[in-house]
Structures are given as C-alpha cells and as structure tokens.
Amino acid sequence: MKRFHVHVGVKDLNESIQFYSTLFGQKPSKQKEDYAKWMLEDPRMNFAISTRVGEEGVDHLGFQVDESSELGELTERLKKADLGVYGEETTTCCYANSEKAWVKDPSGVAWEAYHTMSDAEVFNEKIKEVSSNACCAPTKEATTKGCC
C-alpha cells in the first residue's frame, strides 16, 4: 500500500509544529531538533517538515511504500516516464534507513519513491550535524557528491 509523502521546508520548526499539529489534530509521530513527521491515516499521508531544505515551502513530493516489491514496481513506472530516474540506493535520510529512487517531473518538481526499513539516529549518514545546506531531495549532480 502506498502513502502520499510531502516534505515542506520551514523557517521556524516549533511554530510550524504547533500549526500542523492543530491542523492534523495530532502531534508528530517523529520529532527532532530540525525535523518533524506526521504519519496520517485520513488522508493516508507522510507529512514532514524540516529546517534542512534550501528554501521554505514544498521541497519534494513522493510515495512511501510498505514493501520492497512495491518500490520496484513504482521505480519501473518512473523509468517508463523517461524522466531520468536517479539516486536509486539504500540510504539514511530524514532519520530513516530507506531504499529510494528519485525523479523530477517536467516542471522540475522532485518526486521520491521509497521504502523505509528502520529509524535512524541521524538525519543523513553523510551529513550528521545540523546544517542549513543539508539536502534530502538530491539533484542529479548531488547524488554523485554524497547527498541522500
């Protein structure tokens, strides 16, 4: 089963947590000093916010899947769209260990397809410290430079 994913860059994490907790009627299921995530059932969505993205607003969209086989099927669909799937790998990002594939749509919006295997203690295995330039949605160039 798939869960829609939205990752939004925010300026003030605490203020944003208060807003989204009120909007969603629940507290985040995961909260760190630079990141918060809500796993919603109605609608079925993984909504995340962080101060780690380059700009405020929607950073990327995606689908979280429950099984590796679903990720394979979704990745194949992304490849058939002929938009240059990149970043296919197992990685640590957003405090989770996941298998991922990325693509950008014709307008340049980053889309992530991923399967989370477990929680992680760090935001990104390669960028452990809190940093305003740490990324989650890689550019094609960033995938070769060690970004998740």
The CATH superfamily bears the name 2,3-Dihydroxybiphenyl 1,2-Dioxygenase, domain 1
The parts where pLDDT drops under 50 for at least 5 residues are: 127-135, 139-148
Could you say what the CATH topology is called? 2,3-Dihydroxybiphenyl 1,2-Dioxygenase, domain 1
Number of strands: 8
Count of alpha and pi helical runs: 3
- The geometry reads as globular
Strand order of the largest sheet: 2-3-4-1-5-8-7-6
Q: What percentage of amino acids are in beta strands? A: 35-45%
CATH class assignment? Alpha Beta
Query: In CATH terms, what is the architecture?
Result: Roll
Describe the protein.
- The protein has 148 residues and is an alpha+beta fold.
- It has one domain (2-143): 2,3-Dihydroxybiphenyl 1,2-Dioxygenase, domain 1 (Roll).
- It has helices at residues 13-24, 68-80, 140-143, and strands at 2-9, 30-32, 35-41, 44-50, 57-65, 86-93, 96-104, 110-119.
- Strands 2-3-4-1-5-8-7-6 form an 8-stranded mixed β-sheet, with helices on one face.
- A hairpin with a 2-residue loop joins strand 3 and strand 4 (44-50).
- The longest helix has 13 residues, at 68-80.
- It is globular.
- The two termini are 24 Å apart.
- Mean pLDDT is 79; it is low at 127-135 and 139-148.
